[in-house]
Amino acid sequence: MTEPQWLNPEERKAWLAVASLMFRLPATLESQLQRDEDLTVAGYMVLAMLSESATRECRMSKLAELTNTSQSRLSRIVARLEKDGYVIRAMDTNDRRVVLARITEAGIAKIAAAAPGHVAAVRAAVFDRLDEEQVHQLAAISRTLLGADFPHLPE
Description:
It is built from 6 helices and 3 strands, in the order ααβααββαα.
């Protein structure tokens, strides 16, 4: 058995910071959305991606990719949003094997109400603490770590 390649002190320090961020940031944003809008981060992302679509709809498989979630988890998220009247699902009329998620007018109103508070929370937790160069570095590092598995991320 080969000896593990342990992290050096600088790598360990960086890893502990990243690990802390992975837990703290989602909890902070989830808390704000739950408190202010009764939405999860995942629910918010679904509504945001649908609202940004020119047709206000998206294939469920593509929506899973855009929201960085599994198709089974996305189905549960969309089911809750459907129950709340924010999203409807329907078969694609051109391909009956494809399920589309479509944002409703109530969903548009919900994302419009939620967006200002969410953006303020994201700014306070991330961007207000970084200078312009650090924002570029954060984007570049994130894209590098995510790799080619996330081609939908903007350059």
